[in-house]
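Review form for a predicted model. The reviewer records the input and the model, then writes brief findings.
Reviewer: anonymous (R2)
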Amino acid sequence: MPIQSELANPTDRNEEMTALEAPFTNEERPMLTIRRPLNHRGRIAILVAVVILTANLPAYGYIGPGAGFAVLGSFMVFFVAILSAILTLFTWPIRWLFRSIRGRKTYRNAKIKRAVIVGLDGMEPTLVEKYIAEGKMPNLKKLREQGCYKKLGTTLPPLSPVAWSSFLTGCNPGKHNIFDFLTVDRRNYLPTLSSVHIGGSSKTLKLGKYLIPIGKPAVRLLRKGKPFWNYLGEHNIFSDIIRVPITFPPEKFRGVLLSAMCVPDLRGSQGTFSFYSTRKTDELPYTGGEQIHVTRNGTRVKSHLIGPENSLRADGKVMQAPFEVTITGKGAATLSLCGEKIELTKDEYTPWIRFHFKAAPGIKVHGICQFLLKSTEPEFELYVTPLQIDPEKPAMPISHPTVYSTYLAKSQGSFATLGLAEDTWALNEQILEDPSFLHQCTEADSEREVMLDDALSKLKRGLVCCVFDGTDRIQHMFWRYIDKDHPGHDGFGEVRLKNAIPDLYERMDKLVGKTMTRCEQDDTLLMVISDHGFKTFRYGIDLNRWLIDNGYMVLKKPADGERYLATVDWSKTKAYTLGLAGIYLNVAGRESQGIVEEGKDADALRLELCEKLSGLIDPRRNETAINRAYSARHSYKGPYAEHAPDIIVGYNEGYRVSWEAAVGDVTDDIFCDNTKAWSGDHCIDPKIVPGVLFCNKPIDDDNPRLLDLGPTVMKLFGINVPKHMDGKPLNVNVNGAPPKGAAA
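Model under review:
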């Protein structure tokens, strides 16, 4: 039974019942994820199809460790998902009748029928205002005139996982437990991913050379708090959530969801590219990827895709998928992979190519990737994107319900599933040049635009929320072109895309215009938002070197490029830095080798560090490098506040934690030039980088915050806002009639 035809042709629906909603209703069916307990007698049959793969690979998109990987056999995921979809399809008439009755009550107090939120990650207010004034963003100008435009307060720190977690929970970080991309394991001082933990089964059964896991793998979302769309679902309001960060693993609720940030690649990392070359190199390994040396035999080059360790095998052998490239001309070749032949053309990406690893007899792990032929003469060079989960046959659930990603893939073809799909480190390492990286960004946004259009056409009541990453990634990597004083302003490579950011804003304006056309009804609320703004990143600050120079940290030996604080003498160290956000105290009883007593001593040290760091001057430029250092004890309220760094550093525009300090390395200088392509950032004082809020309805509040938006949507749907939420509903004038012709 073809899934596409089954999902596309439900019959006899009311205004609220849609092609997506019928098969994906979740209230009466079990959650299709690897977290579901298994029946004791059926466990062996299911677990034979389970591959549990754990890894501790780097996640260099934002500096840090990988999430790890756990795989539910692709066949079982697909089979169970299809079976569930068929069952819900046959039972939907009964549920339709039940919800039709409930639906009348649901919307009785609602002021809107539909809310549409388009997230443009990192859109900067000063650039928006500039480009509107220059006539480059006519649709956002119309949206401002139709309703309103305001700067939107962000979070401390203004990092995407922190900000979007506050957006979806309506809470400060002390209540949702996300303070950075990374957190520190206090037992060993090593970094771990802050939002998700993925681990294998604790027990296995050995059968020859294979290990059969006994028990389910652990896939836990470390973000706490309930998303506001879960509350909508409890009141029978359906939601379609597309690529909102920090939604992996997907949670059960009444709606559909495709996860985003922190979805790992097939190697368990947050994105590891591969670069195949006949050129030998003695250089250090690439950050965020690896070079594989290959040998050319006439016109043929043989190698393999590198997968994760196969924990179904006793020897833990790394899984591989062999491929062969036949060079057919200058800048042209043919790739043979998993029985398929794909034509390669220099500097042109292939479409998403499906492949598989053979984990055990009858068990395959499916993935997708893209190839980019960079050279055939004089050296062979081939770039391969991080190996991503195949959305059509997901090795791990990346959507809710699991079959939702399959539906999208059947509808529009394969699409990027990695949380950080745009390969920023391949550009930093000059494996990619500007045009090749920009292609990844625009393609990812185009994929999401198709998903958004599908959601808007099908969901006539409820919530649609879709986040686009291109604004964030392109500004990170191309800000050097709009900052003449940036150390990397002159760029590198043969092609320089100096208009990448202006073109980006015009492209996003066209997206807004199309969305406005789909939201012309008076009872649809449209918000276009960003989680934070953006500024230049010219100089890095090695906070660990500052701590050493000021007597708060001691090394056992001179630092020699060793990461993760490997050279620190913990018996003499009071404070340390790891990650992007701040400083941790080495507290006795909390850290394994802590020496600072909690209480008066720790409080005094926090105050002392905040006072010394606030207003820190860069002596070489006579500029303020740090606006203010914030005490987490005063900034966060909630049950998870104790998990935060002790001090959050609010850098000034132009400054950020150095790349070395972020991974626990120590250099010789406190201040250094940032010469990487990654030239823009937002990990600074939140007062400097507010986001944007455009709405098609007037909003009376002067200082709206990102965490106010969820409560606002709840109130407009007639739902009481829980008392624990820190966000407050904004005063939206839903009766303000939009002027004719306001939409593009």
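Findings: Confidence is low (pLDDT under 50) at residues 1-59, 71-78, 738-744.
Further findings: Residues 399 and 634 are 37 Å apart (CA to CA).
Recommendation: see findings above.
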